[in-house]
Amino acid sequence: MSFPSAARHPAARVLLLTGPSGSGKSSLAARTGLPVLRLDDFYKEGTDPTLPQLPDGGGADWDSPLSWDADAALAAVAALCHEGRAAVPVYDIGASARTGSADVTLDGAALFVAEGIFAAEVIDRCRAAGLLADALCLRGRPTTTFRRRLLRDVRESRKPVPYLIRRGLRLLRTERSVVARQTALGAHPCARPEALARIAAARTAGPGGAAPGADGPSEERGSPVRAAGRK
């Protein structure tokens, strides 16, 4: 896709925040006090014929990047960087459907966070367009992530409990490969304290600069593997 005013220097830059489902992306983004773009709102709807399917016939594979509209998410990132405002969908994960739309505005901020399980999928395109401040992948103990994710999903009634347990165990087994893939795509793997430090560095750099790692892929790279998501 082409970016609006691609040759013009952006007024703001994006910090892409990814990590396994339940790793604490949303709470960390909120803690920064920066404007936040929720990339999970760009999931495809449950009726979309292009949704990837689980190999066992268990329905849509919401943990595949193909279940996510990367082009629409990227357009919203570009609009925020160049115009400071973007109209975005509001997505109901329990219903697997978009329920409306909302405006995200930066109110003059030179940096914002775009967080979601598939954020790493657009790192290269954001960097090529000069929009990227940094890209981080939150990582921790898989057992902690499993517990946090299950409690959240049950509390929010995202899916039936048996489904959530089956999916949670599958993601527990694949969490390290998820981090490896996101790292291979260019996200810097780190725990919360380092993530906060890098976000602070990106804020200091401003729209004309970049935090460490924003101009190229992370030093810690692994082999691309099948992605797992947050849905």
What does this protein look like?
Keywords: ATP-binding, Nucleotide-binding. One of its GO terms (molecular function) is ATP binding. This is ATP-binding protein. The structure is a single chain. By secondary structure, this protein is α/β, with parallel strands linked by helices. Helices cover 35% and strands 18% of the residues. It has six helices and seven strands; from the N terminus they run βαβαβββαβααβα. Strands 2-5-1-6-7 form a five-stranded parallel sheet, with helices on both faces. Strands 3-4 form a two-stranded antiparallel sheet. A hairpin with a 4-residue loop joins strand 3 and strand 4. Helix 4 packs across helix 5. The longest helix has 24 residues. The radius of gyration is 17 Å and the shape is globular. The relative contact order is 0.22.
Estimate what percentage of residues fall within beta strands: 15-25%
As a percent range, the share of helical residues equals 25-40%
For the sheet with most strands, the description reads: 5 strands, parallel
Give start-end ranges of low-pLDDT stretches. Answer: 2-7, 217-230
Shape: globular
Tell me the radius of gyration: 17 Å
Between the first and last Cα atoms, what is the distance in angstroms? 25 Å
Q: Strand-and-helix sequence, N→C?
A: EHEHEEEHEHHEH
